[in-house]
Amino acid sequence: MSYDYNAILSKIQKHRKAQEWEESVETFGTLSTQCPMTPLLWLQYAHDTSKLFITEDDNQDSLKVRLDTLELGISEFPGCALLQLYYVENLVQSTDFNTSEKIEEGIQNALQTVGRGSHCNEDILVVQIYRHYVQFKLRDRNLKSNKDVINIFLQRAISPMKKGNEVLQDEFENLLKTNNITVISKDMESFENGRRQAGICYGMLKSFEDDVDEAMETEGILSRYKLDLNDTIDWDMLIS
Fold first, then answer.
1. What is the pLDDT of residues 32-49, one digit of tens each?
2. Backbone angle region of 106, left / alpha / beta, with phi > 0 → left and psi within -120 to 50 → alpha
3. Closest by alpha carbon to 234, among 77, 47, 107, 93?
4. Is the dihedral of CA 187, 191, 192, 193 positive or negative?
5. How many C-beta atoms lie closer than 10 Å to residue 201's C-beta?
6. What is the pLDDT of residues 87-116, one digit of tens each?
């Protein structure tokens, strides 16, 4: 079956501008069955779908639908840190209907996909996923959660990242001090060795990642990120 991709996109944007969420979702559904959608389109699809389930008393159904739609997008673009971050930020709010195990599994899957390897240009997004994981583990303070927090930082230390590595040590030490967590010398040594090796790897891979990011931006797949480590993403502005 033939279709006009640009015409469908124009129709979607027309409905979204008019806040005609039902019509927008229907058109998104048509597009998603015809061809792969970009990460940004999946973000918009999840946003618009959730709008159909907002009520005055309870928005949990809206959150459920948003998560379900994002999972479909992640199945197409598992390596998109932006999709993974938006999914995690919504997932940690789903304690009313998701178990702690389900939430942790989702965060771990995100980090398994985008929290390892080299992330010199999207490190700010990856760092925010790691931070959400730390805060999630600190909700239930016990000896195991303290060890889990240390392991999260050990995992983050071995991931080559530009700005993320620059602040990693201070962030780790401040968290230990603030939460009165004791770290053994073996873990501290692993942390330092991982951070050094990640720095070496970062320099080797940076030019390759720059080429990939430039190609994705040129093709309109995903723009480069212009954020600082402490910036929060304005999802409404990005998605609307």
1. 888 889 999 999 999 999
2. alpha
3. 47
4. positive
5. 16
6. 999 999 998 988 999 999 999 999 999 877
